[in-house]
Amino acid sequence: MSSLKLEGAGPPSKPRRRRWSLMTIGKAPTQSQFLTIAIIVFVVLIGSWWLATRSGAIPPLFLPGLDRVWQRMLALAVNGTLWSDVQSSLYRIVIAFAISSLMAIVIGVLAGCYGLFKAIVEPLVDFIRYMPVVAFVPLTILWTGTDDFQKFLVIWIGTFFQQVLMMIDAVKRVPIDFIGLGRTLGMPDRKILFRIVLPAAFPAIWDALRISLGWAWTWLVLAELVASTSGLGYRIVVSQRYFQTDTIIGYILLLGLLGLITDQLMRAAERVLFRYNRRRS
């Protein structure tokens, strides 16, 4: 019999190799790839800023040059204004965020574990969290004046109610099998809470704190913009009155830098505190 030659027959083709694996769903970049791409993004943004101002496409009143902003920030640092503003803002955000976070963790964990607390807390929090924080600013001034307690209150209103729901969600994500195992071993509710629920939920709780810290920075600046005599937001308002765009841009960049630093510090702390957590970062 003569052998028949099938059309298209031949050795199996090799699967095509993906040219850029980062465009594959679920493929995370390596640390070197991540840093390289992040640096390129910032270089492109800074270069675009430099070109736009250097060419005169954007007037300095609307967007001052990078060199002008840098010189202005150096001058404020030398005369002590910059450090005084940073110190005031850091003090306010640390105190207010710590109080809000501690309250949210306690209330959120209780509401996530016990049905009675959930019925009390969740509907009320769902109701209040949709109220605009900006609308509370004049009321906080009326209630407490314009001292630091007013700034604490604005930050607390802006972060606490959102944090509570995130804490409840973090506790709900603890596998029910973990709790069932604790009951099988005869552990009382108190031990199940402290030995099973909290260790399992704390990585997600820490993530919630890291995210809500960004909101806290926003509400801090809002409080300092409206009624304050010091701080980063206050300096932005004063600069606006005198059309000091270089100071405004510099302080906005400084706020972004401070937020980035605090975020990275919390990420580093997470890797140290929760080594038992094997989630993919």
Quick structural overview:
The chain crosses the membrane at residues 34-52, 90-115, 127-146, 152-171, 192-209, 248-266. It is found in: Cell inner membrane; Cell membrane. The chain has 281 residues and is mainly α.
Helix content, binned percent: over 70%
Overall mean pLDDT = 87
Intertermini distance: 62 Å
What is the gyration radius calculated from CA atoms?
Answer: 26 Å
- Strand content of the residues, in percent? under 5%
Order of helices and strands: HHHHHHHHHH
Q: What structural class do the secondary elements suggest?
A: mainly alpha
Counted by DSSP, the helix tally is 10
Biggest sheet architecture? none
Strand segment count? 0
Transmembrane segments: 34-52, 90-115, 127-146, 152-171, 192-209, 248-266
Pfam families: BPD_transp_1
Main location: membrane
Organism: Winslowiella arboricola
Summary tags:
281 residues; 10 helices
Q: How would you characterize the overall build of this protein?
A:
Helix content is 74%, strand content 0%. With 281 residues, the protein is mostly helical. The termini are far apart.
SSE map:
Layout: H1 31-54, H2 66-78, H3 81-113, H4 115-128, H5 133-144, H6 148-172, H7 176-184, H8 189-226, H9 232-241, H10 245-273
Helix pairs in contact: 2-10, 3-4, 3-6, 3-8, 3-9, 4-6, 5-6, 6-8, 7-8, 8-9, 8-10, 9-10
Membrane topology: Multi-pass membrane protein
Family: Belongs to the binding-protein-dependent transport system permease family.
Protein name: ABC transporter permease
